Amino acid sequence: MRAKEDHHRFHHKANMYITKKLFNNPTAYIILLLLSYALGYLSSPKPHTPPPPPSRPRAGAGASAATATSNSTIQLPPSLLDNFRVTTRCAADSVPPQLVRQTIIDRIFNGTSPYVNFPPPHISHLLRRRRIKGWGSYGAVFGNLIDKVRPRVIIEVGSFLGASALHMANLTRQLGLDSQILCIDDFRGWPGFRDKFKDIRMVNGNVLLYFQFLQNVIYQNAIDSVLPVPFSSGSALTKLCEWGVVGDLIEIDAGHDFNSAWADINRAWRILRPGGVIFGHDYFTAADNRGVRRAVNLFAKINGLKVQIDGQHWVIHSAVNA
After folding, report:
1. CA separation (Å) from 173 to 67, 91, 245, 273, 278?
2. What are the tens digits of pLDDT across the range 147-167?
3. Stated pTM of the model
């Protein structure tokens, strides 16, 4: 028993001596610290990085294109941009152009055209016979693109009082095209817009932009080619994607800040028919490279596309790479 106690006391003193020497020797202490850190790092479990989500083909591409995309797409590692990508599941097949108008009437207006029995009696006296106003609505870009693309379906994001939509309706009519123009707008204007448009009346806090838009379309005799989609751009573009409604020519002219333009361009791109053209206004504004132009350039760079300029408008051909 005595021998065991002496043996234990000896080892305890030896350990104390070694520890004291290590802590009194800076070099030995640092080596020990580094060894401890290395062993801890090597023995810790590695973090799991989830695989990037599979890319989905745009609406209208068809089953064969979907197969080709899934087989040939190179999977890139996740990035911060993944947080800003649109992930709406689009319809596998697109609605034929000749059925687009009735599809919108059935799904949005319960099967009855919004022009039927218009205007309602309680607001007819508040509307002007014609009140058309827009910005950049008559640029040469409209004629250039319509003549080149010969679109069956045109989708406009941001319509206001319908100036550019009605201009495009006249251009398609002159070319003998049977085109349907869908006008996406919530027709609410923006806070304070009535400071400049006092003649647009209001009923119980509801501004009459939508009704004046319909009145303008009727005045221009364009009810067969121009149809409103009276919702926010985000919700409308998402639903068109889910329904399989695609456009040959899409104009983006709603919000001019970066976030709005970026969201609209990305959502609209998913419902652009392969070979179609997307374009928009306000590429050159006081916002410089902080608004629309920044969104357009970033989108084109990420997707390997070329931005062309036509006056104040930007143009991206889906079939033309940078």
Report:
1. 38, 30, 22, 22, 21
2. 999 999 999 999 999 999 999
3. 0.74
